[in-house]
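Backbone-to-sequence.
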């Protein structure tokens, strides 16, 4: 595993996704991210949502799932 950077958990409960990570993952503004826990570690993945006619329905499904 390679350390790409560090980020601080802020008072609003957020962390900043470093530019090095956004470049590595190809993340663009508005993209959704997934967080997975495995063996005491967090895995961060860019969600792959096809922007088709079903995009709005998939977006709503993801939002509701994460509430």
């Amino acid at each position: 595993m390679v350390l790409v950077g560090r980020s601080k958990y802020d008072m609003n409960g957020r962390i900043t996704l470093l530019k090095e990570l956004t470049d590595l993952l190809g993340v663009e503004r508005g993209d959704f991210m997934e967080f997975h826990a495995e063996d005491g570690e967090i895995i961060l993945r860019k969600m792959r949502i096809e922007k088709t006619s079903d995009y709005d329905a998939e977006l709503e499904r993801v939002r509701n799932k994460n509430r």
